[in-house]
Amino acid sequence: MDVRLNSNLKWQAVANSTLTKKRSTAYGSTVALKSAMAASGAILVLYLIAHMYGNLKVFAGQESFDGYAHALRELGYPLLPEHGFLWVFRIVLLASVLIHIYSAAVLTIRARRAREHRYVVKKRVQRTYASYTMRWGGVLIALFVVFHILHLTVNSIAPGGKSDSPYERLVNGFQPEFWYVTLFYVLSVIAVGFHLRHGIWSGMATLGVNKASRQGKINAVAVVIALVVTVGFLLPPLAVTFGLVS
Amino acid sequence: MNITLRVWRQKGRDDEGRMVTYKLTDVSPDMSFLEMLDVLNEKLTLENEDPVAFDHDCREGICGACGVVIDGEAHGPEVTTTCQLHMRSFKDGDTITVEPWRAKAFPVVKDLVVDRGSFDRIIQAGGFISAPTGTAPDAHANPIPKPDADRAFDAATCIGCGACVAACPNASSMLFTAAKVTHLGMLPQGQPERASRVVNMINQQDAEDFGGCTNIGECAAVCPKGIPLDTISQLNRDLLGSLSKGIS
Amino acid sequence: MSENDLYIEGAPIRDEKAPEGPINERWDKRRFSAKLVNPANRRKLSVIIVGTGLAGAAAAATMGEAGYNVLSFCYQDSPRRAHSIAAQGGINAAKNYRNDGDSIHRLFYDTVKGGDFRSRESNVYRLAQTSVEIIDQCVAQGVPFAREYGGLLDNRSFGGVQVSRTFYARGQTGQQLLIGAYQAQERQIAAGTVQMNTRHEMLEVIVVDGKARGIIARDMVTGEIETHFADAVVLATGGYGNVFFLSTNAMGSNVTAAWRAHRKGAHFANPCYTQIHPTCIPVSGDYQSKLTLMSESLRNDGRIWVPKEGDDTRDPRQIPEDERDYYLERIYPAFGNLVPRDIASRAAKNVCDEGRGVGPGGLGVYLDFADAIERLGMDAVEAKYGNLFDMYQRITGENPYEVPMRIYPAVHYTMGGLWVDYDLQSSIPGLFVTGEANFSDHGANRLGASALMQGLADGYFVLPNTINDYLADGPFEKLDESHPEAVKAKEQVTSRIDKLLSINGSRTVDSFHKELGHIMWDYCGMERNEEGLRKAIDLIRELRAEFWRDVKVLGTNEEFNQALEKANRVADFLELGELMCIDALHRRESCGGHFRAESQTEDGEALRHDDEFAYVAAWEFGGTDSKPVLHKEALEYEYVEMKQRSYK
């Protein structure tokens, strides 16, 4: 408590007067963390769109799909070492993911601490369903990403058999008998869709783009991107499962 | 009307607290919610029971003293202050749950009364324009475009009631802080301190243990004065601008 | 010296501090003659300021900035909640931005005349001079006044004056001005020059060797009774309208600080001057806790009427035109619905007394917009009054676009208060009083948009330039809690609290407060007469005795105890109410907000008696259950000619 000196007074410690708490720097503030989350999220969204575009090549046939996958590895070669671009790309993605998860974790802990006692009754006033799913949805997505890399990139989990062809890995992995793999994939992609629905809106607001006159547009952009990405990612595996791609 | 009330009773800051049920008969639909609590307290006093403590003062929706969570909504089912909520918004036979604002930064003083001193400290950190008395130029020295003046006014109508914090799932005070940052940031007089203001206020807000904003919008939805949600974006923009200039 | 059954007349008094000479030079003269305090010495001086409304927060911010040590107190949880925040209309300033003939002299003239020639010329002139600086100061702080498309400040006319000099911020001018002062004060709190004590209620003043040297305050959270010392004490504690229980004041507004100072020797001036505002939302039941003001601007387009016959319970829309009495238009054809506040209020009371009032309890008159909607169109009416109509609908559940509004007068402002000299110093040296808590500038009636002006003038500009004359003799002797006067004051507080908690009678505090309010409203309200006032005095004495015998206050002092807070306040209202009635009884004239039935013209208008009553009635406390002592301060008018008002 704050006690100041004065010759003539009894200054008392009071509960509610001055700034007594230790100041931190705004680089670690909730707003800065949230901005880091928004910026890293933006990179991941752009990546998702590119990834989805690549996935849709599956409908152009094995040659096109595998060629695309191979071209990614050779991108920038010989200017860069072979696989160089890919690794730069992977490092940027990994950093984004780590920043995104770190910020989310810190902010979640702060939010929990900010309300120690829960309400007995709490009603939602206008918030979207998507906004509810951000934290647990995020955890699900993180788990899925690990599985997804082991499944289709490293191919150490290979329910339908290993292959050097990305196209074959895809087709093998989503055969009807592995319906549980497909189901997990579908649920995860839907979680991604919800995550994008609120995340894109929230990220734009965090980065200062939100103005009253733009709110409708920002929300529309968020919904459209979320839908396109969800559908775009669902088509290839479902096409495999239902025998449209083999 | 007959009303059943479930009211949060808590003797003091360190008490556990619990819900207690009271029944009220002959409630008039024209009573304000606080007048209904007055009636309850008169009844409790005559029955030698401790009356329910709740904050209130002007009872015309402007001082910001009152505020409780009613059936899970800050200030209850209408978008207004608790003192301007009337019993005609409820039905005969309703059970109404009444709780205090819940946030670590708003510790309970007693029953439905909380300590919102953290808001004052956020203002102390920078929610002002330094203009010592007597130093002002003529009021017409600085014309202000009407849209800017109007936006400043919209943000300045905040009454500091704390409903935004109460409604926020993260118990964040962003709407409160953003309203002040926007009010002062829209005016030419507010420019010299603009970059440091936002940084100092945000640092204080974090130090008070308010949570962070997740842009969910519950705050603006319950705000009795309709503080626009986009003030938060303005705060974010200002803060990122300050950080990019190395002011932290 | 003379004595009657109710009071003793003591020696006349005068304001020793107001300079002589041309009125426009007096404030300069006083600022020059007042002793100054060197900035290095200000650090050694401390000032207690009680109350954080416009007058208190502005003073705390300004004096803290100047380098004094300020201890600020408020009973609310934050200084931002003081009731100045509820003022709607605006703030006057003689800027003459409209080039419509306004000037400092005109604002001075309007205020003296509006106060019905019962205020001091010197004070009012200074108020008008200062008004100009207030607007500059507030704009510099970021107060978002209404602006025009060119970016300059907008003005409107208000309260029947002929110039546009009112600055406003939508219908929330008080809020915006208070937030400006609050922020300036919070800045000083952060700087360490102001120490803020929220949820603290002042319960006694400490007077040592004739000087105000501190206060006893109760920490409303822990119940601790604290002793605070300083070199001077400032009361900025607002008005006492809550003596009527129902008023437009905040629930917590009270007279305790001023009344405790009065009991310690500060004179209470003109307590009977009460402003009753004509356009408030009527009482809807006996659970009613407060009254809400609707802006006076409604009378510009609404027509006020009641049914011609009493007990008419028809839907107002079913009452044909020839069975309605548009009584203001009938009695005051020249001004119609726009007569001044006091006249409109009294006329409403008269028709209700005749049994022609409308709504629950028959205490209301219609304010009808049907003609305005027909003439201007629904959209125009909505654009002009939409906010007010929404507020009305929220409170009453009725739609004023379809059904006429019901309105009734309500207590709104008290012109009386602690007596102060030109320096705002009370009759206790070292005790200063600012804003509505003092009596000085509004005479017997306050003009619209002048309360905010006075609060800020006192806080920002007047007090900080006069209190130095007193403080220049400080710092005074260092005191500690064991000083006999401090011990005595603390003991007075604790014994009163102990007494209140020990009675454990059968009636709640509110029930006493309501009963007091009824007595005051019935006999010391819009119209007063000798018989009623005498009856009221008897009733109040009985009620006070019953209160101390039968009040029920539960709990202990050592906790957050709202019933105990109220009991302390009501105990003081029960004493103030009697003094108000005595003051009203002794002033056998009608002036401003004080209408004596015995003093009216043939056609029922207020009649002043300047030969007998052109004075300030400053009451000295005579002792518990003893007669108060009346000191008269003669009022002289050199610059404005005294005239009777007429609105027919």
UniProtKB/TrEMBL annotation, chain B:
Annotated keywords: Iron, Iron-sulfur, Metal-binding, Oxidoreductase
EC number of the protein: 1.3.5.1, 1.3.5.4
Domain annotation 2Fe-2S ferredoxin-type: ranges: 1-102
Alphabetical list of InterPro entries matching this protein: 2Fe-2S_ferredoxin-like_sf (IPR036010), 2Fe-2S_ferredoxin-type (IPR001041), 2Fe2S_fd_BS (IPR006058), 4Fe4S_Fe-S-bd (IPR017896), 4Fe4S_Fe_S_CS (IPR017900), Beta-grasp_dom_sf (IPR012675), Helical_ferredxn (IPR009051), SDH/FRD_Iron-Sulfur (IPR050573)
GO molecular function, one term: succinate dehydrogenase (quinone) activity
Needed cofactors: [3Fe-4S] cluster; [2Fe-2S] cluster
UniProt keyword annotation of Iron-sulfur present: yes
Pfam families assigned: Fer2_3, Fer4_8
Residues in 4Fe-4S ferredoxin-type domain copies: 149-179
Top class in the EC scheme: oxidoreductase
Keyword Oxidoreductase: yes
Superkingdom as given in the UniProt entry: Bacteria
SUPFAM superfamilies xref list: 2Fe-2S ferredoxin-like, alpha-helical ferredoxin
Alphabetical list of Gene3D superfamilies matching this protein: 3.10.20.30, Alpha-helical ferredoxin
PANTHER family, sorted: SUCCINATE DEHYDROGENASE, SUCCINATE DEHYDROGENASE IRON-SULFUR PROTEIN
Family per record: Belongs to the succinate dehydrogenase/fumarate reductase iron-sulfur protein family.
Protein name according to UniProt: Succinate dehydrogenase / fumarate reductase iron-sulfur subunit
Automatic annotation (TrEMBL), chain C:
Fumarate reductase/succinate dehydrogenase flavoprotein-like C-terminal domain: residues covered: 513-647
Organism superkingdom: Bacteria
EC code(s) of this entry: 1.3.5.1, 1.3.5.4
Domain called FAD-dependent oxidoreductase 2 FAD-binding: residue spans: 47-452
The protein's enzyme class: oxidoreductase
UniProt keyword terms in alphabetical order: Flavoprotein, Oxidoreductase
NCBIfam families, A to Z: PRK07573.1 (NF005749), sdhA_Bsu (TIGR01811)
Designated name of the protein: Succinate dehydrogenase / fumarate reductase flavoprotein subunit
Native source organism of the sequence: Nocardiopsis terrae
